[in-house]
Amino acid sequence: MNMYFKVRCVLYYSTLLTIIVFIFFLNTSEDMGDYGSEVMIMDLEESYTAASQRMVTKSMAEREKMDEINGYFLFLNQVPNCGGEFLVFLLQKLQGFNNYRHVRMRRGPQVVSEVDQDDIIASMYERLRNEAIPLSFDKSVYFINFTRYDRQSPTYVNIIRDPIEKLSSRSIEGRESSLLKCIHMQRKCMIGDEIYEFNIPYFCGQDERCRSGNSEWALQMAKRNVEKFYPVVGILEDLNMTISALENKLPYFFKGAIQIFEEKLSVVLPKHGLQMDPIKKDLLKSVLKTEYEFYEWIKKRLTQQISR
After folding, report:
1. What is the pLDDT of residues 121-141, one digit of tens each?
2. What does the H/E/C string look like for the chain?
3. Could you tell me the CATH number of the domain that includes residue 82?
4. Which of 207, 236, 243, 280 could cross-link to 83 by cystine, CB 3.0-4.6 Å?
C-alpha cells in the first residue's frame, strides 16, 4: 500500500512539474514573440518615417517664400550696338575666377510670343538644373517677366548708349531723315537696310505698347522694371563708372572686372559718330524725347550708385 501511494505521488508531482515547465516555456515564448514584434514594428516605423522625410516635399503653403529675384542667375538681355559685347567679354573672362558659367543663347527675334517666352524660360532653367552652378546668360531680347510664368526672375543687367550716338555710329546715308520719318509714324525704324533699335523696349517688355515711339507708358514701365530687376544698367559713354558699379553691386559675377578692364579694355573707347548739324541734332532729340529721358535717368541712377 505504501509503495502504491509513493508511486502515485511521484507520478502526480512529475506530471505537475511537467505542466509547470510547459506553461513557463509557453509564456516565455509568447513574451519573446511580443518583444520581437515590437522590435520589427519599431524598425518599420523608423524606416517609414525616414522615407517619408526624404520623399514627401512641403506643400506650397508650408514653404518659405522664395526671393523674387535669383542672385545666382544673371541675364544680360543686351541692346544691340550699345556695348553689350564688353559685358559678354567680362563675363566670359571672369567665369572661371568667380566659379560660374556663361551661356550665349541663340540669336532670335526681340519680340517673342508667350509660348516662346515660356520656352526660353524653360530652357534657361533646364540649363541651371543640369549645370548645378550659378550661370549667366546673354541674349538680345526685349525684357521677359519671369514672374508671370511662376518662375524666379534672374538678376537682369544691361548697358545703353546715347540714342543719337548709337544712330550716328553707323555711316549710312540719309539715316537722320529716315529716323525722323519712322518715329513720327511710330513703327520700326529702318535706317538703310537695318532696324534702328530703341533702348526703352529692352526694359519695358513684350507688350506692344513698349514699341510705340515717345510713349509715356513705355517709359514708366521701363523705369519700373529697371528699379525692380536691374541692379545695374551701365552707359557706354562711361565704362569706368559702369564697370565699377557692376563689381560693387554684383561681385559674385563681376569681381575682378575693374582689373581686367584697366589691363585689357581701358584703351578701347566708344567710337563717336560723324559730326551732325546742331539744328538736326536738336530736332532728333525732340523726336527721341522719351529715349533721352530714359537715358538721362539711367545716367543719374548710375552716378548715384557710385557715389553711395
Report:
1. 999 999 999 998 999 999 999
2. CHHHHHHHHHHHHHHHHHHHHHHHHHHHHHHHHHHHHHHHHHHHHHHHHHHHHHHCCCCCCCCCCCCCEEEEEEEECCCCCCCHHHHHHHHHHHHHHHCCEEEECCCCCCCCCHHHHHHHHHHHHHHHHHHCCCEEEECCCCCCCHHHHCCCEEEEEEEECCHHHHHHCCCCCCHHHHHHHHHHHCCCEEECCEEECCCCHHHHCCCHHHHCCCCHHHHHHHHHHHHHHCCEEEEHHHHHHHHHHHHHHCHHHHCCHHHHHHHHHCCCCCCCCCCCCHHHHHHHHHHCHHHHHHHHHHHHHHHHHHHC
3. 3.40.50.300
4. 236
